[in-house]
Amino acid sequence: MSFTTYYTASSLDGFIADAKHSLEWLLSRKNDSSGPMGYDGFIAEIGAIVMGANTYQWLLDHDPEAWPYEVPAWVVTHREFETRPGRDIRFTSAPIPDIHRQMADAAGDRKLWVVGGGGLAAAFAEHGLLDEIIVSFAPVTLGSGAPIFPARQELRPVEVALNGELTCARYEVVK
Ligand SMILES: NC(=O)c1ccc[n+]([C@@H]2O[C@H](COP(=O)([O-])OP(=O)(O)OC[C@H]3O[C@@H](n4cnc5c(N)ncnc54)[C@H](OP(=O)(O)O)[C@@H]3O)[C@@H](O)[C@H]2O)c1
Question: Ligand 1 pocket by C-beta < 6 Å: which residues?
Answer without folding.
Answer: 8-9, 16-17, 21, 23, 26, 51-55, 58, 76-79, 93, 96, 115-120, 123, 146
